Here is the input.
Amino acid sequence: MKHPNIVIMYADDLGFGDLGCYGATEISTPNIDRLASGGLRFIQGYATAATCTPSRYSLLTGSYPWRNPRAAILPGDAAIIIDPDNHTLPGMLRKAGYSTGVVGKWHLGLGKDDINWNREISLTPNDVGFDYSFIMAATNDRVPCVYLENRKVVGLDPNDPIEVTYDWDKAFSGQPTGRHNPELLKMSFSYGHDASIVNGVSRIGHMRGGKAALWNDETMAEVFAEKAVEFISENKDKPFFLYYAFHQPHVPRLPGPRFKGATALGARGDVIVEMDWCVGEICNTLERLGIRENTIVIFSSDNGPVLDDGYEDWAEELNGSHKPAGPLRGGKYSMFDGGTRVPFIVSWPGNVDTDETDALVSHVDFYASFASLTGQALENIEAPDSINVLNALLGRSNRGRDELVVEGKQKKTVLRQKDWVFIPPYEGPAVNEYCKTEMGNSPIPQLYDLSEDIGQIRNLASDHGERTERMSARLKKIMESASTRIATQ
Ligand code: NG6
Ligand code: CA
Here is the structure.
């Protein structure tokens, strides 16, 4: 039998409470809600990290991000952090005969060092398992603000080469910046984001040239959706794997005109509705091509939510009673559950139950689970932290993992065992002064029982000293081990 197609749709900074199917009442997400009502909705599905690069690294390699010191929020000119010799999820699926494609946000680095954006780039997604790529290099708030298709910048005029630097001392003279030319901005920054201005929005990092290739934030959703639809259409007769990584609702939030005002929450709500439209485009395409029944569609997010992430888009002021992280504490960057527990939906009509499940699963598990789905045994060094939870992903069992490590900003790790969460003492502010997120830092150990206290309010560490000690020792041991998958088998 032909293997099922696999589509992973991956939001950027979408919280556990941001979708209708996860309790939101102020944002309408009918397409994602339909996926959930016709599939399996996880209430304990996790990203491995509370920021983007580390989460995506894990999803694609089956490895915890703290194994790679370079898996931290990357600048747009960073070298690739996945070695071409590494095993990857798309590479593994390719061995089973899949065509593999990535569309959208990459943020895992490109090239070696000192990348030349004007030539064919070596070391792109195409060198780590993808047959096709149409991406932005990093984030929508970082230069270079151009699309790359396979190894080349799209629409580049060779007479107007692109230069990029993240060093203010090397900033290009004569180029306006948000810092020095705020009068040129259509949206102001609230912190950071004060370098090159593209499309009236200042970004992180400096770029010069490439005028004809610059993206337009307002059409980005359509551009990516079109490429994703094209990839599906072109590969409809083979098994394919599509990793479609949205730029929404990451800052800068600039919805297309059709979605402006779609919610009362301002730009953040509007771009979530826009993203929901993108999900609808994919599902409609699969149905139109008659391949929906043979396609596993997954929807999730790379990390938890944030309101003010550096631009004055009134996300905070207009948020009203909406709860982006639902009942969870913290958000993006945080060690509390709001940082990493995310919407997580698996739909495969006729094969996956329509239900809700509390099985504990993580994005790091896609690797071993899909290896199992496609009948492949993993080598020992492959996907060292990925556990085969296929039965849980398909709703055939309620049992996921027993144990999971997640990380907040700066590689601060946290251990989850069954319903218990242990956060070691870490230095740093309790609340981030810019985005106002509760980070989870505390001079004392923290222990929470999520079965009784989903909001992580009651620290039980002193009442349960022995468990706290045990979990602390276990976390240390895990971090010293080369593979948690082998250790738990
Ligand atoms: C931070 C940026 C933030 C966002 C984040 C990465 C500032 C002040 N903040 O450094 O806006 O870009 O990096 O987000 O520059 S992520 O979802 O890709 O991890
Ligand atoms: Ca993110």
Notes: Residues 267-288 form the longest helix (22 residues). The chain has three domains: 5-158+215-393, 163-208, 403-480. The pocket of calcium ion (ligand 2) is lined by residues 12-13, 52, 250, 302-303 (CB under 6 Å). The chain is about 20% helix and 15% strand.
